[in-house]
Amino acid sequence: MKKLIGFFILVSITSCSTVPQSQRVEEVQPGFVILDVLLYRPVGLIATVIGTGAFIGMSPLTALASIPAPHDAFVKTGKILILSPAAYTFIRPVGDRSFPYNLPQYKHRPIARQNNVEPYKNAVIPKQRPVTPTVPYAQPPLRYPDTGKGL
């Protein structure tokens, strides 16, 4: 029984790799890791905060730039000013020297088509029925609450 358990443990350890086969494995230098944690990450955080402020400040101009087609000025501006520094700061593995860090592709469903087709509306709006206002009937008290005697 111990040999069988040992065999299954050995098979599970060898078959479950933590690094995907298609990913490059590079040696990480400890000096660069320290430099990355102490210098590059805080600078990336500051760049993210400044980019967020710039994005908010430039949003009226970005709205004007979104008027003509393809209407993606907010997406491009947000990707440049907010998502790229944030990905470099928070998503990039410690010690990774790749610059600029390529953002992972997010899989999302578009809410509008480019062929001027209306998007599918998931919301179902129920019919509203008129409600007549009623005044509650106020009954006088039958007895005093503190004595228990009737009126």
Overall description:
The longest helix is centred in the first third of the chain and has 28 residues, at about 30-55. The chain has a domain at about 30-95. The chain is an all-alpha fold. It is extended. The protein contains four helices and no strands.
Keywords, separated by commas or semicolons:
single chain, 151 residues
Please tell me how large the radius of gyration is.
31 Å
H-E order: HHHH
Cα distance spanning the termini: 87 Å
Q: Describe the oligomeric state of these chains in a short phrase.
A: single chain
Number of helical elements: 4
How would you briefly describe this protein structure?
The chain has helices at residues 2-15, 30-57, 59-65, 73-91. With 151 residues, it is an all-alpha fold.
Layout of helices and strands:
Layout: H1 2-15, H2 30-57, H3 59-65, H4 73-91
